Amino acid sequence: MKHPFAKLIGLEVDSTEAGVSTCSIAITETLLNPHKVAHGAVLYALADTGMGAALYPLLAEGELCATIEIKINYYAPVYEGQVSCVTRVINTGKSVVNLESEIFSGERLVAKANGNYARFTPGARRDQTQQRKENSMNAVSEAYPIGTPGTPWGDEERAEWLSRQSRQRSYETDVLSVIERLRPRFDVEQYGRLDYGSESYPLMAIRSRNWRDDLPVVLVTGGVHGYETSGVHGALQFVDQHAEEYVGRVNLLVAPCVSPWAYERIHRWNPNAIDPNRSFHEDSPAEESAALMRLVAPIRDHALVHIDLHETTDTDESEFRPALAARDGKPLEPGGIPDGFYLVDDSENPRPEFQRAIIEAVEAVTHIAPADANGELIGSPEVARGVIQYPLRQLGLCAGITNASYRTTTEVYPDSPRVTPAQCNAAQVVAVCAAIRYALKHP
Ligand SMILES: [Zn+2]
């Protein structure tokens, strides 16, 4: 196909097949910015061209495609050499196709792009009501690209799901190195190890120095859902900035990133397509959960507080709930995502005053989610402002792993235009401090 722009910058499409393409470009002097780095638009052009090339073979006769939007993350500068781009179709809808491009300089992933393309037949005009009806049907029938609707996944579907997951950030850089920097001030221990294929993840916990058996224990857990970023960084920030305020009053045990593989993939599940946060029970199928339960077993009955740090994100509705319905062969019932912070109390041991103290403290940092028109948050009745209840232990949730008098799960909402990542971390930190403060006043 004639592509004058590709020719102008020297971009080559190396291969195309249905749903996959590779293209490449040699970085020459004319493609550099004033800092002698390849201009971001060059990598963008690779993604855009690669997406078109991957999609073309899938189009019906007479059908065309056009870019609606592409989001790109740049990870590292490129100075020279050959840059290659591998693009895959992620989801094929009737009118919108989602694609992903990974851009490499040598072996190194330097950028990643996610794009939506419209597919359409020029000249074909349809009644708008009909179009809307089709769109809403697509939303259900094409909710998830893996498996057969109504049939739970088998090994093959799980493998296909796994093949679509890619490493997007580094546990070592973001988490382990931060824990290393805390080592002079705290006791750091490895409480387990996850071995997934060729990858191995040490599971790390941080403890108060001079642990005293006569003091109550405060347990803080984060990253049970690896993609819930502020849970991980909020836990680490709490240790760094506030843990020392409680010396001599409580023993702190902090597991900041319970599910590191999922942290790197920005996903909810482990590589076996299992949600660790439904797996905190005996004979757990998730090693993430089993390892944490072993760590916590000795303090199970001495814990005063357990606060488990989470987020509720827009991707819960767009990606993870559809994936869950597909995995279990169940119909997807669309729901809403609460706009703001909320807490999950234990319906088997509710502590409304404790939850209220946390909500009041967090409100200084970020907005509290209002209930929806049915008086619910995420499908559960709002029992007090910003609070819902789950039977924690019955559901195998992390916040139920101790017999702590005070238990809660935070749910920060990072996708609000009204918050920044720093505010999300701060909300988690404030919640932890408020929880400890309340519990120490009401032991
Ligand atoms: Zn979560």
From TrEMBL:
Per the record, a Pfam family?
A: 4HBT
Q: Where is the secretion signal located?
A: none
Q: Which InterPro entries match?
A: Acyl-CoA_thioesterase_PaaI, AstE_AspA_cat, HotDog_dom_sf, PAAI_dom, Peptidase_M14, Thioestr_dom
CDD domains, per the entry: M14_REP34-like, PaaI_thioesterase
Q: Pinpoint the Peptidase M14 domain residues.
A: 167-443
Query: What's an example GO BP annotation here?
Result: proteolysis
Q: Which UniProt keywords apply?
A: Hydrolase, Metal-binding, Zinc
Region: Disordered; residue ranges are 120-149
Example of a GO MF term:
acyl-CoA hydrolase activity
Q: Which cofactor does it need?
A: Zn(2+)
User: Which SUPFAM superfamilies does this entry report, sorted A to Z?
Assistant: Thioesterase/thiol ester dehydrase-isomerase, Zn-dependent exopeptidases
Highest taxon in the source lineage: Bacteria
Composition-biased stretches, type Basic and acidic residues, lie in 124-135
**What NCBIfam families is this protein classified in?**
unchar_dom_1
What PANTHER family is this protein classified in?
ACYL-COENZYME A THIOESTERASE PAAI
Q: Which family does it belong to?
A: Belongs to the peptidase M14 family.
Give the protein name, as stated in the record: Hotdog fold thioesterase
